[in-house]
Specification:
The chain has 352 residues and is of the alpha/beta class. It has helices at 4-16, 29-36, 40-52, 68-72, 90-103, 118-135, 151-164, 192-205, 221-236, 243-246, 255-265, 275-288, 304-309, 318-334, and strands at residues 56-59, 62-66, 76-80, 107-111, 139-142, 168-172, 186-190, 211-214, 247-248, 269-272, 296-298, 313-314, 342-345, 349-350. Strand 5 (139-142), helix 7 (151-164) and strand 6 (168-172) form a beta-alpha-beta unit.
């Protein structure tokens, strides 16, 4: 005789596998009780739990019917994260998502992108989006493309594949449009303005008078939000902030651009959009030498290179990001018509 938990799990997996797709309804309680050699009240309790999971609708005197959510929920979720090839922060988020998804009964399919060439990444994102749309995964975690010249078009095409296939999407880290605009997709990440404000206030508190921000060309909207937070800290302390005097738009390894900016503006502190950029900027400043080598640095993410370099930074709450993303995606799969949500998590300052 099968028990309640065993019957529930068996029916849940069959529903997600599409066994009842054609008829859109479960067998009758009598038929299920005979199949599992149990009482009809046990089947009634199992059916109630399936309804709570959003997998069936119940009707008095009739077999339970499969919900729209269950019809779309194949039991598999997709993961498209081009940044994993160049940013340390995404691999641990993926690992946490895999564990949480498995516990919740989902298979997580990782769409691997090996190249850190922006042009190649954009092409691979389009390919993976098409593949996931044909495989009819229930939902996708998607980190939008950045740095590529056609990033906007690549993101739009990828999301078009998902939308046309009725696949729920949660954007990781940032939106596809620059702030303060919002797309119609759910976004899970940190509060980047607050993170930038914390870094800026810390530097002001340590005596920095001329804080600059390194903004890589083509970087994600999160970097702009982080810059806004830093600028707010400068302004609230009585300082001034201008794009020409405080913002360097260049690659951190561009020695000529960095040296010209430092000579013209004489910053005593530099904040970069992430830790990797901050560490590379530090290498460039030390190569320039003189007072440039003494400029204080700060970044964001708290990845391994920041710990090795003793860099002040902001720590990404990896567990909260993964848990929040899975929860939001699961609810979006169940309720496609929910309004778009932005989950902005707190990220603590790490002073080194």
């Amino acid at each position: 005789m099968a028990g309640h938990a065993e019957i529930f799990e068996a029916l849940r997996r069959e529903i997600l596998a599409g066994k009842y797709d054609a008829a859109r309804r479960l067998p009758s309680e009598r038929e299920l009780a005979e199949r599992f050699t149990c009482s009809r009240p046990t089947i009634s309790r199992v059916t109630l739990d399936l309804r709570r999971e959003g997998l069936v609708n119940t009707h008095r005197g009739s077999p339970a019917t499969i919900t729209r959510y269950a019809m779309n929920a194949t039991g598999a979720l997709g993961l498209v994260v081009p940044g994993e090839s160049y940013a340390e922060i995404y691999a641990p988020i993926r690992a946490r998502l895999e564990r949480l998804a498995e516990r919740a009964g989902w298979d997580l399919i990782h769409g691997e992108i090996q190249s850190d060439d922006p042009k190649v990444m954009a092409r691979e994102v389009r390919r993976l989006a098409y593949e996931f749309s044909t495989e009819h995964v229930a939902g996708v975690f998607f980190q939008p493309v950045e740095f590529a010249k056609d990033a906007d078009r690549a993101n739009a095409e990828a999301l078009g594949y998902f939308d046309n296939a009725g696949i729920a999407v949660v954007l990781l880290d940032y939106d596809i449009v620059p702030p303060p605009d919002r797309s119609r997709y759910d976004v899970v990440g940190i509060d980047n303005v607050a993170a930038g404000l914390a870094v800026g206030r810390h530097l002001v508190g340590t005596g920095a008078k001329r804080i600059a921000f390194l903004h890589r060309p083509g970087a994600a909207p999160t970097v702009t939000d982080r810059m806004r937070g830093v600028s707010a800290a400068v302004v609230e302390s009585g300082g001034s902030w201008t794009l020409d005097g405080n913002v360097l738009r260049a690659e951190p390894q561009n020695r000529r651009a960095v040296a010209r900016f430092v000579e013209r503006n004489a910053p005593d502190a530099f904040v970069a959009g992430n830790d990797v950029a901050a560490v590379r900027l530090g290498e460039t400043l030390r190569g320039i030498g003189g007072s440039a080598a003494e400029i204080r640095l700060a970044g964001f993410d708290d990845v391994e290179c920041a710990r090795r370099a003793g860099l002040t930074t902001v720590r990404q709450p990896l567990d909260d990001i993964a848990a929040g993303a899975l929860q939001v995606l699961a609810s979006r799969i169940k309720s496609p018509d929910l309004p778009p949500r932005r989950i902005s998590l707190h990220a603590p300052l790490v002073v080194r």
